[in-house]
Amino acid sequence: MDKVFFDAYNSCDLKKQESIYSDTIEFFHDKAGLINSKSEIIIGTKNNICGKVTRYIIPGSIEVYPIHNYGAVEIGFHRFYNNQEPDAESKPSKFIIIWKKENENWTITKVVSLH
């Protein structure tokens, strides 16, 4: 699901991203704070990410742990490259995503993004 979501992120498929985010999303960003509005996240992605930023996973960094009767937690490291500043340094950052499985569908309910 990480690949499915971030393929949509990197290609600016906002409809796919919106379908994966839970309606009760909580997005904790160490610099921006808490965002708990799916539409606000999608608008922010459209305005600040689409065509400007590309996300790459750090190979071998993903850990996934099942959460009984809920879904899973994913922990890993990734890099974001600013396509507008190709020479800018991209440092690895840690992330945590809480995935919920309902009726064979996976949604993101919580994100912790640390830079």
Unreliable segments of 5+ consecutive residues? none
Radius of gyration: 14 Å
Q: Helix count, per DSSP? A: 3
Mean pLDDT: 96
Overview of this structure, please?
- The protein has 115 residues and is an alpha+beta fold.
- It has a single domain, classed as Roll (Nuclear Transport Factor 2, Chain: A).
- Helices cover 23% and strands 47% of the residues.
- The chain has helices at residues 2-10, 14-20, 38-48; strands at 21-29, 33-35, 53-57, 63-67, 71-82, 93-102, 105-114.
- Strands 1, 2, 3, 4, 5, 6 and 7 form a seven-stranded mixed β-sheet that branches.
- A hairpin with a 3-residue loop joins strand 4 (63-67) and strand 5.
- The radius of gyration is 14 Å and the shape is globular.
Keywords:
115 residues; alpha+beta; Nuclear Transport Factor 2, Chain: A; 3 helices; 7 strands; Nuclear transport factor 2 family protein; DUF4440; NTF2-like_dom_sf
Topology:
Layout: H1 2-10, H2 14-20, E1 21-29, E2 33-35, H3 38-48, E3 53-57, E4 63-67, E5 71-82, E6 93-102, E7 105-114
Parallel strand pairs: 1-7
Antiparallel strand pairs: 1-2, 3-5, 4-5, 5-6, 6-7
Helix pairs in contact: 1-2
